[in-house]
Design a protein that fits this description.
With 127 residues, this protein is α+β, with helices and mostly antiparallel strands. 31% of the residues lie in helices and 27% in strands.
């Protein structure tokens, strides 16, 4: 199954499509608003430690990531307040014209929360 991968800065609204998450974060660091002090730590994370790089980004920046497939969108972020990330996802979903029954799977690592719903059931205060 083919997935398209994206990083988003949920405070600025920047969304960047990437081939893989680790290389994409490095390549598009400035576009995503990753601070220089965080970029300086990139060298500590090899390809084998790419999950560690994602965790660094989640802890240090307002970034989230998602994979978009033919049947669903799987998103992950780490924030106390869900609303900015949800707004970013909703903007993307409207732009890409998700069907009402399109599934979304969201993981908030900060709250240790998983949410699964159809696009038509996306939180009303955000949509």
């Amino acid at each position: 199954m083919d997935f398209r991968r994206f990083w988003c800065n949920y405070l600025t609204g920047a969304v960047v499509e990437v081939t893989n998450f680790a290389d994409g974060a490095r390549t598009h660091a400035d576009e995503l608003g990753i601070p220089a002090e965080v970029q300086a730590k990139f060298a500590e994370y090899t390809e084998l430690r790419s999950r560690g790089l994602c965790e660094l980004l989640f802890r240090s920046t307002p970034l989230g990531r998602w994979q978009w497939g033919p049947y669903d969108l799987r998103a992950e972020f780490c924030a106390e307040d869900d609303a900015p990330f949800l707004r970013c996802v909703a903007t993307f979903a409207r732009k890409e014209q998700f069907a009402p029954d399109f599934m979304l799977h969201l993981i908030n690592d900060f709250k240790l929360q998983r949410r699964h719903f159809r696009w038509c059931d996306f939180p009303g205060e955000i949509q």
